[in-house]
Amino acid sequence: MNDLPLHVTESPDGITFNVHVQPRASRCEICPPKDGELRVRLTSPPVEDAANKQCVELIAKALGVAKSKVSIKSGGKSRHKVVQVQGVDSRTLITIFKE
């Protein structure tokens, strides 16, 4: 995908991309990509899966899909995660950065 400095893999099911999570931030927000990863700031602490749940909710809301369509494929206990979103394409991901 050449429109963003973000590595996105498309499949018939949806898209997969890398996310860098910053827990315990002052507010929840999606920041522009850096080093090939989407940056996500979360207010939740990284305990008891709270940050992962908030990450899924924030990405789902930004893309306009149900939370059940967003999943963390790897990196559940890391700040660097691989996220899969079903039912969308890479062009939909661009809408996050146009706002």
What would you note in describing this structure?
- Pfam families: DUF167 (PF02594).
- This protein is an alpha+beta fold and 99 residues long.
- The chain has a single domain, classed as Conserved Hypothetical Protein Mth637, Chain: A (2-Layer Sandwich), CATH 3.30.1200.10.
- Helix content is 23%, strand content 36%.
- It contains 2 helices and 6 strands.
- Strands 1, 2, 3, 4, 5 and 6 form a 6-stranded mixed β-sheet that branches.
- Strand 3 (29-34) and strand 4 (37-41) form a beta hairpin.
- The chain is globular.
- The two termini are 19 Å apart.
- The model has no long low-confidence stretch (mean pLDDT 90).
Descriptive keywords:
alpha+beta, 99 residues, 2 helices, 23% helix, globular, six-stranded mixed beta sheet, Conserved Hypothetical Protein Mth637, Chain: A, 36% strand
